[in-house]
Design a protein that fits this description.
The protein has 19 helices and 6 strands. Helix 8 runs antiparallel to helix 11, helix 11 packs parallel to helix 13 and helix 15 packs across helix 16. It has a two-stranded antiparallel ribbon with strand order 1-2. A two-stranded parallel ribbon has the order 3-4. A two-stranded antiparallel sheet has the order 5-6. The chain folds into 3 domains: about 90 residues, Fumarase C, Chain B, domain 1 (Orthogonal Bundle); about 240 residues, Fumarase/aspartase (Central domain) (Fumarase C, Chain A, domain 2, Up-down Bundle), CATH 1.20.200.10; about 60 residues, Fumarase/aspartase (C-terminal domain) (Ribonucleotide Reductase Protein R1, domain 1), CATH 1.10.40.30. It is elongated and about 100 Å long. With about 450 residues, the protein is mainly alpha-helical. Bound molecules: arginine. Arginine (ARG) binds next to helix 7. It is an enzyme of class 4 (lyase). One of its GO terms (molecular function) is argininosuccinate lyase activity. Its EC number is 4.3.2.1. It catalyses: 2-(N(omega)-L-arginino)succinate = fumarate + L-arginine.
Length: about 450
């Protein structure tokens, strides 16, 4: 039971949050004359010593005694400054408000690391989108070649998802960063500690206004996992595209050696392991989110030990999110693109819509032009021509008298992308507008 019950081997990573919380709590006890100035300074001195032991890796966990980080720190504090004073620290406090406080502090700081990694990922996209603006490749629907798009347009599409992830993360942080300290075991603090002071000193944005919520709420853990799941679904789709683009058959991109591996058997192989892991780890994050929802569901009010089950999935999920974001940035900023391969994958039939649009500009209704353009594709095929651009004006005129000399400018991929200059399109000007929009958000 002792082993089954203990959480020290994983919650020890919250040692700093635990010590900060204790120091501020001790100050609040002194403000209410529960402890003297001398006792307060002894508690602070002792807590700093405990902190130093964790920081220089000399803290000796007492097996079978130290159940969790909270009891371990208090045990050690008593050994260092004497149990008489150390025993006053926990006055009016419970591990229930303590653990909720520590987890929120730890998570808030971790989310800040993830946020900065996510900003780096967005910047890597913006940098590439600007640098590679001239590259044109096929855009796909149903994985079938559809219309030409700029590679930068594809890059920017992913920044729109990641930008929403960033906005959601910033909103989520507000709900994580609320202070439960001073909730006691469940009913509140009987020594009138100044909860606004506790919150401010610990860097929280607000105080949780109900003590039962203070000790029992783990929505902030669930929401982090939900956030992570949606984010990883975006990462997995991004990775899947790049895996495809890096195959010999596509050859649009080539991963740097640092982010690929060879095969133990086939000497010629270069495998996109980084991208496959990014795709694969999304499953792990979804699973942890769903698992924790099962833990939360139908729990009775306030603290139940089930809640200790929040930490391992939370720690693993946030680790995975941080690592994955950094790896994705590394992959993108070091891969090389092959403009020739992208161009070679473009085929004239991908301009069939442009041909129809040409006739629309000559006054023909779109439904008709769609039919005529389709007929042009079939005709070129039946005549054994390499594409609709080889039909020539005479043959095109047999399909519609509206075709003129200027139709030849339609058979150009650059022309095709430049036509799509409305907001959100793939024209140079439109992609630059997208880059500007995301840059503005990063400046906020
Ligand atoms: N290790 C516990 C957790 O993570 C701390 C709170 C324990 N509280 C209690 N009443 N047993 O949830």
């Amino acid at each position: 039971m002792t082993t089954y019950n203990e959480s020290i081997h994983y919650d020890k990573r919250m040692y700093l949050a635990d010590i900060l919380g204790s120091k501020v709590y001790a100050t609040s006890l002194h403000q209410r004359n529960i402890i003297t100035a001398h006792e307060l300074s002894e508690l602070h001195r002792g807590l700093d010593l405990v902190h130093a032991e964790w920081a220089n890796d000399t803290f000796a966990i007492s097996p079978g005694v130290d159940e969790d980080i909270h009891t371990a720190n208090e045990r050690r504090l008593g050994e260092l400054i004497g149990k008489g004073i150390a025993g006053k620290l926990h006055t009016g406090r419970s591990r229930n408000d303590q653990v909720a406080t520590d987890t929120r502090i730890w998570l808030r700081d971790t989310l800040d690391e993830i946020e900065s990694a996510l900003v780096d990922l967005l910047r890597a996209h913006l940098g590439r989108a600007e640098a590679d603006l001239d590259a044109i490749m096929p855009g796909y629907t149903h994985l079938q070649r559809a219309q030409p798009i700029r590679w930068s347009h594809w890059l920017m599409s992913h920044t729109y998802y990641f930008t929403d992830d960033l906005t959601r993360l910033r909103q989520l942080r507000i709900r994580v960063n609320r202070c439960p300290l001073g909730s006691g075991a469940l009913a509140g603090n009987p020594f009138a500690v100044d909860r606004a002071f506790l919150a401010t000193e610990l860097g929280f944005d607000s105080v949780i206004g109900n003590s039962l919520v203070g000790v029992a709420d783990r929505d902030f853990v669930a929401e982090t996992m939900m956030w992570g799941s949606l984010f990883m679904s975006h990462v997995s789709r991004w990775a899947e595209d790049l895996i495809l683009y890096s195959t010999q058959e596509f050859g649009f991109v080539k991963l740097a050696d640092a982010y690929s591996t060879g095969s133990s058997l086939m000497p010629q192989k270069k495998n996109p392991d980084s991208l496959e892991l990014l795709r694969g780890k999304s499953g792990r994050v979804f699973g942890q989110m769903v698992g924790f929802m099962y833990t939360l569901k139908a729990l009775p009010s306030t603290y139940n030990k089930d809640l200790q089950e929040d930490k391992e999935p939370l720690f693993d999920t946030t680790r995975t999110l941080l690592d994955s974001t950094r790896i994705a940035t590394g992959v993108l900023s070091t891969l090389s693109i092959n403009r020739e391969k992208m161009l070679a994958a473009l085929t004239m039939d991908m301009l069939a819509t442009d041909l129809a649009d040409y006739l629309v500009r000559k006054g023909v209704p779109f439904r008709e032009t769609h039919h005529i353009s389709g007929a042009a594709v079939s005709l070129a095929e039946n005549e054994g021509l390499s594409g609709i651009d080889k039909l020539g004006l005479d043959k095109l005129r047999t399909l519609s008298p509206k075709f003129d000399e200027d139709v030849m400018q339609v058979f150009n991929f650059e022309h095709s992308v430049e036509m799509r200059s409305a907001v959100g399109g793939t024209a140079r000007e439109s992609v630059l507008r997208q880059i500007g929009e995301v840059k503005a958000l990063l400046r906020d």
